[in-house]
Design brief:
about 120 residues, 6 helices
Length: about 120
């Protein structure tokens, strides 16, 4: 019986040629000096989303995402529920948090009341 319905999970694509072209196109749209139509932008993103659902994660995909930040942002948003902001630079986020803590601590020190020597307190 060949008419039996079976669900087959296709194996992930390892050829990233189409994904690369779409990522490159999205990057060009992001940096275009000419206004880009919403439908064109949406179409490219939708095609890229479809490609991301079929590609195999790994080093090749990582290199592609490193080269195309706009595509990396789409990928990260698609996978947010599983990995959070997995492609955001941790070093930059950590450095910003440390700097914010330093600024807050300095501001708190500057608002403490100064003791006046004339009052006999040192």
């Amino acid at each position: 019986m060949d008419s039996m319905n079976t669900t087959q999970n296709p194996s992930p694509k390892t050829d990233l040629a189409v994904t690369h072209v779409l990522a490159q196109l999205l990057e060009r749209l992001e940096h275009s000096t000419v206004p880009v139509g919403a439908e064109q932008y949406r179409s490219v993103v939708e095609h890229l989303v479809h490609e991301f659902s079929d590609v195999e994660p790994g080093a090749d995909l990582g290199r592609l995402l490193d080269a195309y930040p706009a595509a990396a942002e789409v990928y990260e948003n698609l996978n947010y529920q599983h990995a959070g902001l997995c492609r955001s630079a941790l070093d930059a986020a950590l450095a910003a948090e440390v700097r914010a803590r330093e600024v807050i601590a300095r501001a708190m020190r500057n608002t403490e009341p100064k003791k006046d020597k004339a009052d006999g307190q040192s």
